[in-house]
Write a structure and sequence with these properties.
binds zinc ion; 3-stranded antiparallel sheet; single chain; hypothetical protein PF0899 fold; 3 helices
Length: 130
């Protein structure tokens, strides 16, 4: 219970609950996998974060610092690879990627009939430990 209150205090100042909740579930997954594989110290974690997952890498790193205060994660390096948002236009079949804007307009035919095909992902690519 103390830990829960602690997390929410940190979140109130510097984080959105989105990244805290995501990181919390990522750490749960890692704990479970580490137990299954007899790993007691994780040294490296690589995450893939699509830009449309709306999780900010800096906030995820901060959440990791705040939530990963236990033996298993001591000294672990968290690497985050951001993936662009890729869309397809249903009018002209052109695919295109969005960088830091969220204008879902086809750059080829300026149509609005577009769909996101990747960029929502958020997953653990791999982790290392012993
Ligand atoms: Zn188009």
């Amino acid at each position: 219970m103390f830990l829960c209150i602690y997390y929410i205090c940190i979140a109130g100042y510097t984080l959105t609950m989105h990244e805290v909740a995501l990181m919390s579930s990522i750490l749960d997954t890692l704990r479970e996998s580490a137990v299954q594989n007899g790993i007691s110290n994780i040294t490296q974690i690589k995450l893939v974060v699509g830009k449309f997952s709306m999780a900010l890498p800096d906030s995820l790193l901060f959440a990791f610092e705040a939530l990963g205060q236990e033996e298993l994660f001591m000294g672990a390096v968290l690497e985050i690879e951001e993936r662009d948002i890729n869309c397809i236009c249903h009018d002209c079949r052109q695919s295109f990627s969005l960088d830091n804007d969220y204008y879902f307009i086809c750059p080829n035919c300026t149509g609005h009939n577009t769909e996101i095909i990747s960029g929502r992902e958020l997953y653990i690519d791999y982790y290392e430990g012993d």
